[in-house]
Amino acid sequence: MENGKTKNIVFLTGAGISAESGLSTFRDSDGLWNNHRVEDVATAEAFVRQPETVRSFYNELKKDVLSARPNPAHLAIAKLQESPLYHVTVITQNVDTLHEQAGSENVLHIHGRIDQVVCLNCGKVSQALGSVTGKTPCPFCRKEGFLKPNIVFFGENLLFLDEAQNALENCDIFVSVGTSGTVYPAAGFVREALLRGAETVEINKEESAYSFLFQKRFYGPAGKIVPA
Ligand code: BV8
Prior knowledge:
single chain; alpha/beta; six-stranded parallel beta sheet; 9 strands; 29% helix; 21% strand; binds ligand BV8
């Protein structure tokens, strides 16, 4: 029982929940990583080696992401959050803000957000809806050349991990939506939910790398299954 609500539900969402909003996933046949080498654009080392390549990759990706709109799956989760019966936490691996646009609160962006940059000089996070280059000054410390997409690259620690662990410790129902279950530590969250005795539910287009860990599994497009 938490703030008078009966059940704690934790969602872990991945690129699949945003697919029907027109955004590419990572590992599907038309996925992002099919046209780019991860090592070139999504690792901490790549940003040190070639920051402008990484910045322009995200400047391009940002244009698509910011023109996308929430789909029925995002809207259904936001609606569930309004219910007096459930306390719903959304842990998302997605860097889009479609959960927020659908009206969700309590969204933990463990892999960061594409509409933000972090300054490697002063450490402050600011919103960046347009393109960011090595010449863009930090709005806080005014220094140029220190802005990095506020995205967690491979080899970097996750954001909001403490809040995510806390949600998992109190979780009654764990629902994975649209993720291949291949990136850690997020792919390990279901194990923590199981250890807690939570009910585990997977909603995905097809079987994933970790489907065997789920007691209930619903396959099909998230835009149809999640509302149902
Ligand atoms: C870390 C940022 C500590 C970029 C991302 C060996 C073993 C275990 C772990 C590791 C290892 N070697 C390295 C590691 C650690 C590494 C990792 O897990 N690597 C994997 C690849 C093995 N993890 C890390 O580095 C993490 N940090 O561990 O810190 C540390 C510190 C120092 C040194 C070492 C470790 C950082 C992880 C975050 C990396 N950043 N993205 C960007 O987003 O642009 S990961 C990237 O993958 C995205 O964030 C994405 O969200 C995430 C997961 O992908 P999915 O969301 O699942 O998307 P995917 O395409 O894979 O799947 C989509 C699914 O949807 C599919 O199943 C599909 O069927 C389904 N679907 C499609 N359409 C629909 C649908 N479902 C429903 N409806 C539809 N319509």
